[in-house]
Amino acid sequence: MNFLWIHVAIILFLVAGLIFAGVPLLASLLLAPKSKEKNLLLPYECGMCPYGSPWIRFGINYYFYALLFLAFDVDVLYLFPVASCYFSSKGFLPFIEIFIFVSILFAALIFFFKKGVFSWPKRIKI
């Protein structure tokens, strides 16, 4: 293996990055005031004292919406590199591939809609 100066630069930047991230963390541990107040352990609710238990149950629909958003968002991100290379390609093959990809996304959207994932339930009584 040939040792190049680029290896020294990479190692130097890696060490500098670790120092740049570690020094503020270490400084906050050493220099931050220590407080033993019981209000620090309470959940934060806009500066007001919390009402009720902090361990309440949320409906799972919030998580469904978050997962669906992430799935479709990441899938749509695949279209940006294809769109940037679309003008330099020849023929209809990229268009057909994009059409198949978008049609699969649309079929998944219809499937989720028919399963009732997008219908918000009434208030659930615990």
Automatic annotation (TrEMBL):
One GO term describing the cellular component: NADH dehydrogenase complex
GO terms assigned for molecular function: NADH dehydrogenase (ubiquinone) activity; quinone binding
Subcellular location: Cell membrane; Membrane
Pfam families the record matches: Oxidored_q4
Record's keyword annotation contains Transmembrane: yes
Enzyme Commission designation: 7.1.1.-
UniProt record similarity statement: Belongs to the complex I subunit 3 family.
Protein name as it appears in the record: NADH-quinone oxidoreductase subunit
Species this chain originates from: Desulfonauticus submarinus
